[in-house]
Amino acid sequence: MHGRGAAFPGGARIAGVELLARLVRAAARIATAATLSLAANAAAAAPDLAVTLRQTSADPAFTNTSARYETTLRNIGASAATNGNVRVDLPSGFTFQSASGSGFTCTATTGATTNKVNCQSGQLGAGATRSFTVDATTPRTISGSRQVFTLTATADPTNLVSEGAGETNNTATASSAVETAADLQSTWSGSPVS
Fold first, then answer.
1. Strand, helix or coil for residue 19
2. 8 Å CB contact between 39 and 91
3. Which of 9, 19, 128, 157 is the most exposed place for a label (fewest CB within 10 A)?
4. pLDDT tens, the chain, 194 aa long
5. Strand, helix or coil for residue 178
6. Can you spell out the DSSP letters for 67-110?
């Protein structure tokens, strides 16, 4: 051992400060790898909510008639989600009728510019699925003889669930066509048949 550094096999000499710097860099790389590994494991074990939305009634629907939409919430993550809340935004002109589904409690906020259906559910286990339906009345009048509206469903709209895989699948949309009802008034003007 010499005062200027440590002797290593092969006769290489590394000054004490340089040796310390190399050890610190190696420790930092190990710590970074461990942190990334822990983060990946945490993400893999986290819940991951996914939502779908579809129209289950006749499409297209006529003006001022009932239409039904089904929302399905799935937890495709590896651990339970603390809640399974979903919000469905109805298009302007639609009138909320009702919403129900096993395991959900639904309420609506309606108004001139707001038409939101909030359905709350308790814990949703890994791999679990729950569905609910929303019934609404289509607009009385539309633009032209056919108009397409968009509904949106959002899982965990208030960000109560920490999802490891992100929230890219937390929103779904459904297109709903509405047409004016055909005029079925008789135009026959002949004599009555006896």
1. helix
2. no
3. 9
4. 455 555 555 555 556 667 677 777 877 776 555 444 444 444 457 999 999 999 999 999 999 999 999 999 999 999 999 989 999 999 999 999 999 999 999 999 877 667 999 999 989 999 999 999 999 999 999 999 999 999 999 999 988 888 876 778 999 999 999 999 865 455 556 566 65
5. strand
6. EEEEEEEEE-SSS-BS---EEEEPPTT-EEEEEE-TTEEEEEEE
